[in-house]
Amino acid sequence: MASAIGADMAAVGIHQGLSPVLDVVRDLRWGRVEETMGEDPYLVSLLGSAYVRGLQSAGIVATLKHFAGCAASQGARNHAPVSIGRRELADTVLPPFEMAVRDAGVKSVMNSYADLDGMPPVVDHALLTGLLRDSWGFDGTVVSDYYAILFAQQMHAVAADRAGAARLALTAGVDVELPQTDTFSTISAQLSRAR
């Protein structure tokens, strides 16, 4: 299925797919359940890795979503905090991502909107660089979920302004801001003025 989807995407000039969703969903109230592959981490790991291999076999960059914990948010709300322990994170949330990185060779990862114990993944160096790149060996592109860097300032209040949010995200390991450069452009403008 993913190979066929990838072939169709490539035929119309698309290079990157924002899929698969590897969120392990346990609360059916979450509004994005239909995007997920199930409630079992092992099943999601197998299906997600197969999807990555299929999409990338057609020359399309697959993007894992949403790293990490998006579907474990309080009250099953899309942007709500995630208050889970390290063991549940390691045993339930992370395995599909790790398998897709280590075994399927995924080329892109997208952060989660939620926060993990008060830390938004989009600015979490330990998650995006320490775990993803250093421990798992990911060498692809980290892309922000839509407006997630801006949300680091506006919703999570971990940055005073857009430039501060951009610096935190870049330092954490985000390579590309989606869907447009709302925060990264502020740094570019500052650098241009400094010259």
Radius of gyration: 16 Å
Strand order of the largest sheet: 1-2-3-4
What is the global morphology? globular
Distance between termini? 50 Å
Alpha-beta content class: alpha/beta
Please report the total strand number as a whole number: 4
Mean pLDDT: 92
Q: How much beta, percentage-wise?
A: 5-15%
With helices defined by DSSP (H or I, 4 residues minimum), what is the helix count? 8
Major sheet size, sense and barrel closure: 4 strands, parallel
Q: Which helices and strands appear, and what pairs or packs with what?
A:
Elements: H1 2-11, E1 16-17, H2 41-57, E2 61-67, H3 86-93, H4 95-102, E3 108-111, H5 125-135, E4 141-143, H6 148-154, H7 162-172, H8 184-194
Helix pairs in contact: 1-2, 2-4, 6-7, 7-8
Give an account of the 3D structure.
The structure is a single chain. With 195 residues, the chain is an alpha/beta fold. 43% of the residues lie in helices and 8% in strands. The chain is built from 8 helices and 4 strands. It has helices spanning 2-11, 41-57, 86-93, 95-102, 125-135, 148-154, 162-172, 184-194, and strands spanning 16-17, 61-67, 108-111, 141-143. A 4-stranded parallel beta sheet has the order 1-2-3-4, covered by helices on one side. It is globular and about 50 Å long. The relative contact order is 0.12. The mean pLDDT is 92.
